[in-house]
Amino acid sequence: MTGGAPTPGSGPAPAHEEPGERAVEDPAETYLSDETLPVLEGSTRLVLVRHGVTDFTQARRMDGRGGADPALNATGRLQARAAAGAVAELLARSEPAPVRVVSSSLARARETGQLLADRLGVEREEDRDWDEQGFGDWDGRAMPELAARDPRELARLRADVDYARPGGESRRDLDDRVAAALGRAVASGGTVVVATHRVAIMSVLCRVLGVRHDRGWSIATGPASVSAVEMWPDGGVQVSFVNDTHHLRDLDEG
Is position 213 annotated as part of the catalytic site? Predict the structure, then answer.
């Protein structure tokens, strides 16, 4: 695809949708007017970096907004440094452009974002709309335990866009705030590197690719992975790559 290509998933939503069938909105809706004309220049490159691992990540524990908020562990810090190096190499191969680094407000993303900012020589910004989904009373619980004890509820969390755990938030809630953060990022132009979380990255990719939210779980976005999307002011989108982890292959995952 090239700049100015139409965004997948655009068009009116169906009159009736079952839970989990809601089509994602066009990302252009967050920052464009109906009078926007096709353009081939002025794109924003969005580089999405998932944080490195924490003890929760390695134990497969739910870890959302409003929970324990663990920091990166030793392996996670190595991963984040490697991701920062990979992003620096990626940008060095591109035409010079203004670069911003934005992180979520959660500790593991802040640490990852700071390593990215230090490597790129810019100040880290913070936007809590890039935070992970809030899992409420499930925060800290292990996925194998939930799969064994609450399989129906776990399936519902993945399939129903309006389902939220007590004290948590729904996927619709997350999609709405990530859409706002995405609109702010794209409006700034240049290159925006975002240190964020699995479901937030999934939300962006579902939105720009027109993928149903429940199918978004099929998109792999591993810890410290790098994904890149280019977006034009007319709503054109090009997904350059997803879940690049080549920079981690020499690390000891112990």
Answer: no
Choose the catalytic residue: 89, 95, 132, 246.
Answer: 132
Can you give 20-88 as a three-state secondary structure string? Answer: CCCCCCCHHHHCCCCCCCCCCCCCEEEEEEECCCCHHHHCCECCCCCCCCCCCCHHHHHHHHHHHHHHH
Catalytic residue among 17, 25, 51, 126: 51
Domains of the chain: 27-248 (3.40.50.1240)
Please say if the pLDDT value at position 252 is more than 50.
yes
What one-character DSSP code corresponds to residue 219?
S
- Interatomic CA distance for residues 163 and 158, integer angstroms: 9
SS3 state at 244: strand
Q: Is the pLDDT of residue 254 over 50?
A: no
Q: What's the pLDDT tens digit per position in 177-214?
A: 999 999 999 888 899 999 999 999 999 999 999 999 99
Judge whether 140 and 56 are in contact, CB under 8 Å: yes
- pLDDT over threshold 70, residue 37: no
Q: Is 25 a catalytic residue?
A: no
The distance from CA 187 to its chain's CA centroid, rounded to whole angstroms, is 17
